[in-house]
Amino acid sequence: MPTPRSAAAPVSTAESRTAPAAVLWDMDGTLVDSEPYWMATERELAHEQGATWTDEQALAMVGQEITQTARSLREQAGVPGTDEEIAERLVNRVADRIRANGPPWRPGARELLDELSAAGIPSALVTMSYREMAQAVLESLPAGTFAVVVTGDEVTRGKPHPEPYLTAARLLDVDIRRCVAIEDSIPGVASAEASGAATIAVPLMVDIPPAPGRTLLPSLAGVTVADLSRVAAAHLDTH
Q1: Are 87 and 46 within one domain?
Q2: In angstroms, what CA-CA distances link 83 with 62, 66, 124, 204?
Q3: DSSP-derived pairing of the beta strands 22-25 and 179-183
Q4: What's the count of helices (H) and strands (E) in the chain, helices before strands?
Q5: What is the pLDDT of residues 157-214, one digit of tens each?
Q6: pTM for this prediction
Q7: Is pLDDT at 133 greater than 90 in this prediction?
Q8: Could you tell me the CA-to-CA distances from 187 to 15, 69, 161, 197, 207 in Å, in that order?
Q9: Which of the residues are catalytic?
Q10: Residue 118 is part of which domain span?
């Protein structure tokens, strides 16, 4: 495992054997490197109106609710329709790109998913993408890879609010404090930490600063169930 930068206390041998009750995965930027698909689609919608959509505007949308992106496209680029209509167009076009090109898996993500499944540790997908987008990714995975799927169109308050992660833990019937969440964005990390889950941040498009109890990794490549167990145990020790 790449050496994490974490403010958590050292983990004892006994604690390192404590497996997480579940692992809660963000999707875009964490499980799959789909952010370029989102950014390309945002630019496409803006260009259709004769407007531009800069890299800075696109990066500001990373990890946000899709309706927030839709609102920004409507207000800043003149994309027509309601926020919900624009969000639906965004989701459908990104899902089409995923299906046409295949999910661009992030390093180590598939391997860790397989190891969790073999160990009998449930995984949940907790994403602000809508069900249609999540389904495009799930179609390429073995049935049952995720015991629970929570999507942005199925919660009242999205990230950075803790509702998405709390919903996943409730559906899995597990204690959120015994779960490990894996995220790549600032809103996502805020949501996971506010829920009470042990949180691993694997930044991709946007830097995430260190914070007490937060584990920062450059990649999931080489990360194992034993590594997640150490993070979970350290979290329980400090909570």
Answers
A1: yes
A2: 17, 9, 27, 27
A3: parallel
A4: 9, 6
A5: 999 999 999 999 999 999 999 999 999 999 999 999 999 999 999 998 889 999 999 9
A6: 0.81
A7: no
A8: 29, 13, 8, 14, 12
A9: 26, 28
A10: 15-33+103-238
